[in-house]
Amino acid sequence: MSKLSFFFPGQGSQSVGMMSGFGDNQVVRDTFVEASDVLGVDFWEMATVANEAINETSNTQPIMLTAGVATWRAWQAVSGKTPDVVAGHSLGEYSALVAAGALAFKDALPLVRYRAEVMQNAVPAGVGAMAAILGLDDDAVRAVCAEAALDEVLEAVNLNSPGQVVIAGNREAVERGMEIAKAKGAKRTLALPVSVPSHCALMKPAAARLADYLQNVVVVQPQIPVLHNADVMAYSESDKIKDALVRQLYSPVRWVETVQAVAAQGVSQSAECGPGKVLAGLTKRIKAELPCVALTSDAALTELNQTL
Hints:
The chain is of the alpha/beta class. The chain has helices at residues 26-39, 43-48, 57-78, 92-99, 105-122, 138-149, 171-183, 204-214, 238-248, 255-264, 278-286, 298-307, and strands spanning 3-8, 85-88, 128-134, 154-161, 164-170, 188-191, 226-227, 267-272, 292-294.
């Protein structure tokens, strides 16, 4: 029997109308109601009616968690087939842990909202930035960061696919990095519309606060292996899972290695479980022979189930 993996998207894949492919799917709607009851925010309205609140970090993180879990539950209702391994991109790691049974959805919701708040508060507005560097390999981008940092923070933080690396750190250092990258032959540099420089050393204060919060969160052994962003490892012990989540805040998202590790386990089919098609696109660039379908509709769920 062929092996299956699920990838859960993170911040940046949110959009108004992102759940429209599921129509009136009751499982999806019930998941959004559950999230709204826990946090006191109407996330379904936020996901369906034009607004800017969806892009505020403290809303984006819980709504993306909810969308990923809703899609996962819809898949379970259609199929009942369990992936052999799961992973999530940054915030998506929390959706993966819920899907794997390691973290209760009702606990994950306030946890990711707290994560968003400590990330936002760790760096004053305007101090940090992120940018995508296209067309340079990982080592070349790391060299750019070392040259451009001077006395500030600048790191390669999202190793998304060959030739697509995101850098983060102090705003001026990011701007210098973009210029140096262009001089070294980058095809394109793109400042990202984010208020938080994720996955770099500027997030260490946020990580310390997250570690304190996690002490009171119940995490149990996952029923499905979850590959963590920080080290591309799967853990069964609660304290090691929590430590991986803390380290994730200030460590690079090693996505290329994650997809390669999944493929090395003999997985022959993967799926992006949540809104958008970002991870499906990255999977194609990282490992073209590993098909990845985006589960953005009831039809996509049915089609994947029939192909397995």
